[in-house]
Amino acid sequence: MKSITVEELAARSGVPLIDVRERDEFAAGHVPGAVNVPMSEIGDRLDELPAEAFDVICQAGGRSARVVQALEARGYDVTNVDGGTGEWIAQGRDIEVPSA
């Protein structure tokens, strides 16, 4: 399984980012530009995933690692973000919070 650090994620551009946390977690704050496809829904939403290579993030890296393994088995070119959104926030990086 391919993985990158939060620092590497911050330096990337043009690579789609899928956040697999649940909707309420995503709404509380997420990495700018991330698209929410919760782990609990991903099996029903495969048609929404990018055709090109993309990154997957969750809160700490565990859920995203499981999703990456499952998607790799289906032929997707995916990369896990180690440390997840929690590490992103811990480093003081900007987050997006949707307006109510």
UniProtKB/TrEMBL annotation:
CDD domains assigned to the protein according to its UniProt record, in alphabetical order: RHOD (cd00158)
Residue stretches making up the Rhodanese domain: 11-97
UniProt superkingdom: Bacteria
Coiled coil regions in record: none
Xref: PANTHER family: FAD-DEPENDENT OXIDOREDUCTASE, SULFURTRANSFERASE YTWF-RELATED
Listed name of the protein: Rhodanese-like domain-containing protein
Organism: Microbacterium istanbulense
